[in-house]
Amino acid sequence: MFKSDDERIQDKLLLLKLKEGSIEAFDALYDKHWKSVYSAAFKRLQDPDQAKDITQDIFLQLWLKREESRIDNLPAYLHIATRNKVYNCMEKERRFVPVPELMLQLKSSRDQTDADLIRKDFEAACEALINTLTTSQQHIFRMRYQQDMSTSEIADVLSISRKTVQNQLGKAVAQLRASLLLLSIIILIGQ
């Protein structure tokens, strides 16, 4: 949609006031343009949270760089900034491979020897992480995920309540998830 000359002039005046530090000008520009930025990001990502984050980031940068800004056509600037942020977001997601998918990729790898070594290293790292849990959490975690027992069965065997099993299991999984995320980041940085 093409902007009228009046809208372009209004944007330029607001940008000049913004350059001088006018919060009112910033608010006016935000109110006028946030929806188009959000819509463009959401259209490509189909994720409302990511679209909100991108929208906020673009307008934050507009505010932070207001003094050095040389924007002549604000809608065009916002369109390009949104497109770039969306591409960056998509690129980050492409680099992230969930652990189960990573294991499947390793199994289908042509170089099975390397895949076996990496799998063994990963399993050793997982075992080391499990060993960082408290003794009771380790025991419950192994019963649930290695022996495939239900929380009710674990509660019966250990003579504790099912709720206690669930709480211990929840804490163990949360700790392991955080550790695995850190491990994944370290692996990605090392590549």
TrEMBL record:
Residues 127-176 form the RNA polymerase sigma factor 70 region 4 type domain. Transmembrane segments: none annotated. Residues 29-95 form the RNA polymerase sigma-70 region domain. This is RNA polymerase sigma factor. Keywords: Sigma factor, Transcription, Transcription regulation. InterPro entries: RNA_pol_sigma-70-like, RNA_pol_sigma-70_dom, RNA_pol_sigma70_r2, RNA_pol_sigma70_r4_t2, RNA_pol_sigma_r2, RNA_pol_sigma_r3/r4-like, WH-like_DNA-bd_sf. The keyword Nucleus does not apply. Signal peptide: none annotated. The keyword Transcription applies. Belongs to the sigma-70 factor family. ECF subfamily. Pfam families: Sigma70_r2 (PF04542), Sigma70_r4_2 (PF08281).
